[in-house]
Amino acid sequence: MKNHSFQHYSHDVGAAVHDAWITTRVKSALAFADTNLALHINVKTHAGIVALSGRVNTHKQCEQAVAIARSVPGVAEVDAKELLTHVFTPGGISEPPNAEESAEDRTQSSKKIDDQ
Question: Which CATH class is domain 2-88?
Answer without folding.
Answer: alpha beta
